[in-house]
Specification:
The structure holds 2 protein chains of 2 kinds. Chain A is mainly alpha-helical. Chain A has helices at about 5-15, 20-25, 30-40, 55-70, 75-80; strands at about 45-50, 50-55. In chain A, strand 1 (about 45-50) and strand 2 form a beta hairpin. The model of chain A has no long low-confidence stretch (mean pLDDT about 85). Chain B is built from 9 helices and 7 strands. Chain B has helices at about 15-30, 45-55, 55-70, 80-90, 120-130, 150-155, 175-185, 200-210, 230-245, and strands at about 70, 100-105, 140-145, 160-170, 195-200, 215-220, 265. Classes of the chains: A mainly alpha, B alpha/beta.
């Protein structure tokens, strides 16, 4: 079952033909993402055009509604926070190293 | 400041919504299953997406185009194709089945591979079931040959035929090696032999015909890029495929598939004649149709 936050992200990605890796990194298999896209099309929230997928009026309205429910405004309504990079709160004096320390310069 | 370009960047994956939607459409058109299973990372659809995510957008577009023309024949569909070939044989004006009493069936196998587990042996046995239900063959004596061990006295007469069967003929090298073995070591006459394959490439068929042997197939495959595009589009697509093959470190003998066959086919096993991007697994890389 998809959460409201993830559905907003999916609609945003479909609207801008975005990189679906952000959904994949949140634990969705590619096949699950494809099935979610099919579900969104079945519900008339998106449709195919000559250039690819685009949101329908119903899709735009759904995006607006979900953003309102999640209290997202302005840029937040267009770009979802990258939840996959969120970490749980740690103590002030705890030392934290990112998983890929080789990238540290 | 580093500029973003079209070249592949190590570790960065990209797969946009339109590409995954297009792939999903192709899967639906081909009736390939898209599993909705969170645990199976290695399903066919996920394997395809993993492959695509490591390519640039123009490379992805080429793989999508080739996938649209890709033929996948699982083992449970072999009987449909065998039935089609038997109908072709029965209606061929150059073959008079009414005077044939005995049909010998041998697997198409290179002499050095005799005794090994090959898909041609599976095809050999798949034929038996179909013979029973075909009015032209049901009353013939069907005899199975072990490897290529046939007696010339059984084959070289007007009442017998030798069917040499397989599921795929690529460059024709294996077929020619088997046929030459039959001619030279077993003294079989070429006119008594018929090669049957579910799928064959044009180049393989030509080689077999050059030996004076008839060939019957259910499906003939042409080259996936060279025989589909022309002019500047052809050279652009070949360059694009070369860039993919360089990226996945394909051996020079395997470039564009063994013998540069450019095949787009998967049977029980994926032939190495198919573009290696579809089967090459190296250093943890995932391919859609591993061998």
């Amino acid at each position: 079952m998809i959460t409201d936050e993830d559905l907003v992200l999916l609609l945003q990605l479909l609207k801008r033909n975005g990189n679906i890796q952000s959904l994949h990194k949140q634990g969705y298999q590619y096949s699950q993402i494809a099935n979610l896209i099919n579900f969104v099309i079945e519900k008339n929230l998106a449709y195919y055009t000559d250039t690819g997928l685009t949101l329908s009026n119903e899709g735009e309205e759904a995006l607006l509604l979900f953003n309102r429910n999640l209290r997202r405004k302005n840029s937040e309504a267009m770009i979802s926070p990258q939840a996959e990079y969120k970490i749980s709160k740690i103590g002030k004096y705890e030392i934290y190293l990112p998983s890929n320390i080789k990238q540290l310069r | 400041m580093k500029k973003r370009n079209d070249k592949f960047r190590v570790g960065e994956k990209n797969l946009n919504a339109n590409t995954i939607a297009k792939l999903s459409q192709i899967f639906n058109e081909k009736s390939w299953e898209i599993e909705d299973d969170a645990l199976n990372q290695l399903s066919l659809f996920n394997r395809f997406c993993t492959l695509l995510s490591e390519l640039t957008e123009p490379q992805q577009a080429l793989i999508i185009e080739l996938t649209e023309r890709f033929t996948r024949i699982p083992s449970d569909q072999y009987k449909i194709h065998i039935r089609k070939i038997l109908d072709q044989l029965a209606t061929d004006p150059n073959i008079d089945l009414s005077c044939i009493d005995d049909i010998y069936i041998a697997p198409l196998i290179a002499p050095e591979d005799i005794g090994k587990t090959k898909s041609s042996v599976f095809v050999q046995y798949s034929f038996q079931e179909q013979f029973h239900y075909n009015p032209y063959f049901a009353h013939k004596n069907i005899r199975f040959v072990n490897g290529l061990d046939v007696e010339s006295s059984h084959i070289n007469n007007d009442k017998s035929l030798l069917f040499v069967v397989d599921d795929f003929i690529g460059t024709g090298d294996t077929a020619c090696s088997a046929l030459n073995y039959l001619f030279q070591n077993k003294n079989i006459t070429n006119t008594r032999v018929i090669v049957i394959s579910i799928v064959a490439l044009n180049q393989g068929i030509t080689k077999i015909l050059d030996l004076g042997v008839r060939v019957f197939t259910s499906l003939i495959c042409s080259k996936g890029i060279s025989e589909y595009y022309s002019g500047t589009q052809l050279s652009a697509k070949l360059t694009l495929m070369e860039s993919i093959e360089n990226k996945i470190k394909v051996h020079r003998n395997e470039k564009l598939g063994y013998g540069q066959s450019e095949a787009l086919v998967k049977m029980i096993r994926t032939p190495n004649n198919t573009f290696p991007v579809f089967w090459k697994e190296k250093k943890g890389r995932t391919a859609p149709f591993p061998r």
